[in-house]
Amino acid sequence: MTTWLRGVLWVVWLASAFWLWHVGALGAGGALAVGMLSLVLLIWPATSGRRRRSTLQYVEMGKAPVSLR
């Protein structure tokens, strides 16, 4: 998921939590808990496939090392 999409989903999540709190369907403690959960989900690391692509890979060149004499 891209960074801007995560940001948009986070704002939508917080706006819906605020709206539920405003209409009285969610208490203050629940609204704070939902807000904290949204922060955890926002900073959750990216998928493992994304991390795997960015790691350095060793490439075998097929040459023998030059010996020092």
Word description of this protein:
By secondary structure, the chain is mainly α. It has a domain at 3-43. It contains three helices and no strands. The model has no long low-confidence stretch (mean pLDDT 78).
What's the layout of helices and strands?
Layout: H1 3-22, H2 28-42, H3 48-54
Helix pairs in contact: 1-2
- Helix percent reads 55-70%
How do the helices and strands follow one another from N- to C-terminus?
HHH
Distance between the termini: 54 Å
The strand count comes to 0
Largest sheet: none
The radius of gyration computed from the alpha-carbon positions, rounded to a whole number of angstroms, is 23 Å
Poorly predicted residue ranges: none
Mean pLDDT over all positions: 78
- Work out the strand percent: under 5%
Q: What spatial form do the alpha-carbon principal axes imply?
A: rod-shaped
Structural class: mainly alpha
H/I helix tally = 3
Key features?
mainly alpha, single chain, 69 residues
Quick rundown:
The protein contains three helices and no strands. By secondary structure, the protein is mainly α.
